[in-house]
Amino acid sequence: MRRAPRFGVWLPPLAPSIVLLGLFVAGPILWCFYASFTNSALSGIAARRPKFVGLDNFTTAFTSPDVAASLWLTVVFVVLSAVVGQNSLGMMLAVFLQHRGKLLRGVVGTVVVAAWVLPEVVAAFAIYAFLNAQGTLNEVLGWFGLSQNWLYTAPMMAVVLANIWRGTAFSMLVYQAALSEVPSDLVEAAQVDGAGPVRRFWHVVLPVIRRTVVTNLMLITLQTLGVFGLIYVLTAGGPDNKTRTLPLLMYEQAFKFGQIGYGTAIALVLLVLGAVFSLVYIRSLKAEV
Amino acid sequence: MRGPRLVVNLVLLAVAVLFVAPLLWLLTASFDTHGSLAAKVPGDFTLANFGQILNWEVGGRPLVNGLLISGGTAIIAVIVAVLAAYPLSRFQLRFRRPFLYTVLFTTGLPVTAIMVPVYGLFVRLSLVDSLWGTTVFLAATALPMAIWMCKNFMDGIPVSLEEAAWVDGASSLQALRSIVLPLMAPGVAVVGIFTFITAWGNFFVPFVLLLDPDKMPASVGIFSFFGQNGLVAYGQLAAYSILYTAPVLALYLVVSRWLGGGFSMAGAVKA
User: Fold this and answer.
1) Which of B15, B23, B110 is nearest residue A108 as measured by Cβ atoms?
2) Which of A136, A179, A270 to mutate: most B Cβ within 10 Å?
């Protein structure tokens, strides 16, 4: 690596990135903070001359039962589908597949990854058809007389399952990579000392891959916080707003009702929720080290 | 040891069956004259569903738009990211670490959360309903991951090769173009394909930033089709889904053959 050269040498190649990231990523985030204090709207007087309204949007947001309900639904969706579902299932698959034959690894790996490779909307169609009143699941459950329209009777369960189905591959691939780097002599030493498979995993493997677990949790949490298309296709936030997570509420307020300022305040709640989750994960790493 | 082993194998098979079940419908319904919402062996095998989708209005234009947007996104992101990766990989810059950490942090940012202010920005810049605006925005959101991957690929190429060029008086950009780029061509291809796949599947960004149905990429086009006809013509919806999925599936297979699966997740995610 060379010492830092003149300004004119390193800046020009970096400039396009700085401009694009500044304009389209950093700019909008900063504007989030500003616009959430205004009454800016899509049309009408407020669209041309947004007025400063102080904390009105936040007062509305935090006293509104809609936002409180959506915040709760978002936390439920993230915890059940990402933190519990994708993470545990992905880890379980990676561990179970580690010393299996090539055939089983190939089949299970391909099937799980296939759901992940599908574009978001197609994945949503597949789950929509699967859980529909006339869908595949009900054809099977019909033999036992258990068929029902899952998207109406258990909408949150349906979108959680959809997200687990679609996202587990990511965690599985991350953990497969991490497990392959756990020193095998550590595991063998524990085996010689008489530790069973569960204790070997809990006391030897898990501490070694701890950092990967936290990183993976952070990535899938942030991905899941932003899920829109999957829920929008499956339930559109319904029935009776039972699956209206923050992204769907934000879309509805900002683009259907034209309340840009209010929509931005909801976006800010979403960003802050992401930051809170991230801080918890980062702290959990620091606390143990 | 045989007992637990059998149980584990059964669990794995059960998971595989559960994961493949929702996919079956896509395959069976698309080839069935009377496709329904449940997966069953086509009673009346047909290719007509594909034929009905493959006209300019329904399937053609959205796929071409998607190709333009995703292709443009990949090209812009790769060029800009390679340029940025060079000084970050080769020079000791004081802000290098903070810059890289910011980039890494931004890869996790849910783009959904900034779409409302981005829409506001697009209104100000008169970029709403512009294919170019949407493409450049998608490229900007792809940049953090692209810069991060490019920098890692570039770090793997020994500096000693360029030092000879520097001694001969080549500029940094000349060294980048004639020595580094040819060596990291596979890496650049991976970054480009990864960006393309992500943009191809992105639904929310074009859904918000584009208005004219004629400009919509396949991700939105297929959703509109679902809203208008999907509740009747299940076979066509499944056929459209397969048509729309095929390019990313092919690209994914190419990359995973190259890298041995998972987009070399190990290097990308290790903290």
Assistant:
1) B15
2) A136
For chain A, which residues score pLDDT lower than 50? none
* Chain B contact for A191 (CB, 8 A cutoff): no
- Secondary structure letter of residue B47 according to DSSP: S
Chain B residues 134-173 within an 8 A CB cutoff of chain A: 136-137, 139-141, 143-144, 147, 159, 172-173
Of the candidates A24, A114, A119, which has its C-beta nearest B137's C-beta?
Answer: A24
Where residue B270 falls among pLDDT bands split at 50, 70, 90?
very low
The alpha carbon of residue B221 and the mean position of all alpha carbons in its chain are separated, in whole angstroms, by: 17
pLDDT tens digits, A106-127: 889 889 998 998 999 999 989 9
Question: Which pLDDT value is given to residue A165?
Answer: 95
Residues of B within 8 A of A101 (CB-CB) are: none
Instruction: Identify the CATH number of the domain in which residue A106 sits.
Output: 1.10.3720.10
- pLDDT reported for residue A249: 93
pLDDT at residue A207, rounded to an integer:
87
Check if A14 contacts B (Cβ < 8 Å). yes
State the average pLDDT over residues B175-198.
Answer: 87
Find which of B19, B28, B143 to mutate to test the A interface (most A CBs within 10 Å of its CB).
Answer: B19
User: Considering the entire predicted model, what is its pTM?
Assistant: 0.87
pLDDT number for residue A49 = 64
**Superfamily of segment(s) B53-269:** MetI-like (1.10.3720.10)
pLDDT value at position B266?
A: 41
Identify all chain B residues contacting A213, using CB atoms and an 8 Å cutoff. Answer: none
Does a structural domain hold residue A140? yes
Answer yes or no: is A139 within a domain: yes
Domain positions in chain B are 53-269
Residue A93 CA neighbour count, 13 Å, CB half: 35
Of all residues in chain A, the one with the smallest CA distance to B171 is A9
What pLDDT score does B258 carry?
A: 75
Q: Are A238 and A262 in contact (CB under 8 A)?
A: no
Chain A residues with CB under 8 Å of B200 CB are: 119
**B191-210: pLDDT as tens digits:** 999 899 999 999 999 999 99
By the CB < 8 Å criterion, does A129 face chain B? yes
Domain that holds residue A121: 33-288
How many domains is chain A built from?
1
| B119 vs A contacts (CB less than 8 Å) | 254-255, 260
Which residues, in sequence order, are bridge partners of residue B129? none
Residue A163 within a domain:
yes
Enumerate residues 214 to 233 of chain B having a beta carbon within 8 A of any beta carbon in chain A: 219, 222-223, 226, 230
Share of chain B above pLDDT 70, in %: 92
Hey, is the C-beta of A227 within 8 angstroms of any chain B C-beta? yes
